[in-house]
Design goal:
45% helix, 10 helices, Rossmann fold, alpha/beta, 10 strands
Length: 303
Amino acid sequence: MTTIVVGIDFSESSKTAAAQAGRLAALRGATLHALHVIDELVLDDMRQVMKLPAEQLREETLRNAQDHLARFLIEAGLDIERVVPSAVVGHPFQELLRRVQTTGAELLVLGAHGSSPPGRRAGSLATRCVRKAATRVLLVRRAHVGRYKRIVALVDFSETSGLALKEALATARQDGAALEVLHVFDPPWARLHYRSPSPESSPDFRQQYQETLQGRLKQFVEQWAGEAPEPAASLHLMESVHVGAGIIGRLAEISADLVVLGTRGASRLRVVLLGTIAERIVQESPCSVLAIKPADYAFEIDG
């Protein structure tokens, strides 16, 4: 990793994101770009009220924002000499993705909530960046400033979840964290109960099904991480008719502080839709979320 971009909106959420981005940049030896975007619509509203020439207002606002950004980063605990801070005028979503593109950043870091109240659901800008940015996106929850202690990698046996597993292993190795590889499945016997009694709903079939899944999960980990991954990962199968809710419940149960997932899994949904399960985890996860994109993902700056 050579370049990280962190979005700053001067909220407490983005202060936590800046601290985490600074920590990761130092560990990975990456250049950190801190970007604050002044919404051009807000600036236009100010111009109409203040009756100032547009160019004068723009220059004054940019200068004030740049000064405030430097102070904000210092308050977040960053060494300002190791950060490239900048303020621009534009649409926040488009400017963030444009900065990722122009710098070739391998990671975009955002506060999960931005300036919205610190409820469980992630903010709309953060969620949209996860959908569209053609790079890894880390949404940081306010409580997670330091190193990660318990990481969960979500696996659905797709190539993208393999990439997520590799990134989870690297992060666990970097932070000395415990790693759980989690596969949540919707059991066929729950969907075929109307055929009971049947082989699909028998205890023998259930056991065989779960043992096959366990073997497949072990083989998948060996394929992507090697036969003896370092650090060692625990494998966990979980049965749930509501996969998204099951995952969120598991994250809370084990007090995970980071979940790593691929944004396009085994389904054939278009990438831009993210997928309903991944979307729910991004929005409702009780911990920070690192979203990994498919290798063939293209930038989606407009729209």
